[in-house]
């Protein structure tokens, strides 16, 4: 029996942290929509992230590279894609200093290829939502950025995200292709890969190692719980104005030092006097961004509010990492096996 779906949504990067939460929300909330996930399963993915929905009738997975024009043209010519959420990207700021070319390839070229295929599709998409970052503004000590501020990215990751934004906007300016851009704060929650700060601290503590604090500068970040980010993306799909940019933010700003101390207390259950035993200071890269304050009034005018407090979000996150201690180490082992199998195949 074939089912009739009334909307087809393509999510790129749907196996990643935010992508997997978005795919699960779409699949569960909208059985009448068909959800296609295109992802090449980079090192930061676990197959377990999507196990709760992978057998659902309205879900399809395509393992593939967003930079592959033949694949992308094929997808857009054989499926009637109505909505695109573009999340596929290289995302780890530290790595972007070591391998900027792979960031350019995926984040810029991948976006170019996807836009080209989507725009030329026989069935015209209604929305193309590009998930960008507050980091495109560059850091600020006191200025609070709104969507009209100019961008000034200052690391290779944010530079590629900003470049991709310009490509996306050019399709609006030139063709009135119905794009929306989101710029969000740091997003956190269950299933985030261990290279990002909250899961890194939690994983270190679970291994009885100290939290490594980079540098001595008073760095802080705004943290938005993943469910709130997803509700913003879904609201923007229905109510966002095409051609516009929306900040997706939170007033919850946490100094990294305070974050580490809070996580030590939650995971190790130690009194204040012993917290420092679980902290270690390591050198930082030069000119790290201290903070990224943004205002998201434009999004709030559409009716969005962050619903999950920091206390509740971090409680849920810590609980998930405590209940799933092998989630990422096993994923890395699986990936290692896949890689060595591939090497064997390519050798013969
Ligand atoms: N995590 C945050 O705090 C945050 C904040 C703002 C914006 N963003 C943006 O949200 C998006 C998702 O971020 P995330 O934190 O979930 O990252 P992530 O690294 O967990 O996920 C990225 C996904 O993209 C996939 N991918 C990478 N290269 C690909 C390629 N060539 N073809 C197909 N798929 C590919 C990966 O396999 C992975 O599933 C990114 O575009 C990121 O820039 C993230």
Summarize, please.
This protein is of the alpha/beta class. It contains 12 helices and 12 strands.
Furnish the topology, listing elements before pairings.
Blueprint: E1 7-12, H1 17-29, E2 33-39, E3 59-63, H2 69-78, E4 83-86, H3 93-98, H4 100-120, E5 127-133, H5 156-175, E6 179-184, E7 186-188, H6 197-206, E8 211-214, E9 220-225, H7 226-239, E10 245-248, E11 253-255, H8 256-268, H9 272-275, E12 279-282, H10 297-300, H11 310-323, H12 327-347
Parallel strand pairs: 1-2, 1-4, 2-3, 4-5, 5-6, 6-10, 7-9, 8-12
Antiparallel strand pairs: 9-11
Describe this structure in words.
Keywords: Lyase, NAD. This protein is an alpha/beta fold and about 350 residues long. It has a domain at about 5-190 and about 225-250 and about 285-310: NAD(P)-binding Rossmann-like Domain (Rossmann fold), CATH 3.40.50.720. The chain has twelve helices and twelve strands. It has a seven-stranded parallel beta sheet, sandwiched between helices. The longest helix has 21 residues, at about 100-120. The protein is globular, with a radius of gyration of 20 Å. The termini are far apart. Mean pLDDT is about 95; it is low at about 340-348. Nicotinamide-adenine-dinucleotide binds near residues 12, 41, 110 and 131. Nicotinamide-adenine-dinucleotide binds near residues 87 and 110.
């Amino acid at each position: 029996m074939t089912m009739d779906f009334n909307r087809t949504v393509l999510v790129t990067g749907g196996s990643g942290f935010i992508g997997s939460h978005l795919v699960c929300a779409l699949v569960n909330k909208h059985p009448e929509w068909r959800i296609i996930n295109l992802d090449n399963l980079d090192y930061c993915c676990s197959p377990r992230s999507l196990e709760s929905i992978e057998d659902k009738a309205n879900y399809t997975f395509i393992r593939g590279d967003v930079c592959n024009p033949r694949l992308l043209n094929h997808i857009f010519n054989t499926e009637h894609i109505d909505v695109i959420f573009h999340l596929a990207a290289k995302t780890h700021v530290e790595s972007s200093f070591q391998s900027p070319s792979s960031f350019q390839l995926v984040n810029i070229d991948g976006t170019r290829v996807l836009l080209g295929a989507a725009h030329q599709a026989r069935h015209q998409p209604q929305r193309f939502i590009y998930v960008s970052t507050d980091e495109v503004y560059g850091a600020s000590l006191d200025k609070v950025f709104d969507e009209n501020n100019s961008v000034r990215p200052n690391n290779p990751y944010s530079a590629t995200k900003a470049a991709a934004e310009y490509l996306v906007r050019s399709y609006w300016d030139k063709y009135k292709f119905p794009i929306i851009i989101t710029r969000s704060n740091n997003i956190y929650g269950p299933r985030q890969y261990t290279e990002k700060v909250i899961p890194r601290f939690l994983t270190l503590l679970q291994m009885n190692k100290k939290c490594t604090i980079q540098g001595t500068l008073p760095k802080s970040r705004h943290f938005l719980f993943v469910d709130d980010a997803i509700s913003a993306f879904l609201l923007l799909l229905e109510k966002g104005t095409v051609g516009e940019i929306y900040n997706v933010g939170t007033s919850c700003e946490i100094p990294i030092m305070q974050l580490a101390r809070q996580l030590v207390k939650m995971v190790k259950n130690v009194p204040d006097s012993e917290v420092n035993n679980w902290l270690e200071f390591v050198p930082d890269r030069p000119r790290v961004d201290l903070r990224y304050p943004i205002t998201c009034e434009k999004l709030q005018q559409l009716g969005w509010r962050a619903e999950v407090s920091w206390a509740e979000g971090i409680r849920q996150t810590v609980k998930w990492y405590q209940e799933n201690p092998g989630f990422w180490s096993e994923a890395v082992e699986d990936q290692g096996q896949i890689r060595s199998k591939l090497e064997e195949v390519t050798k013969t």
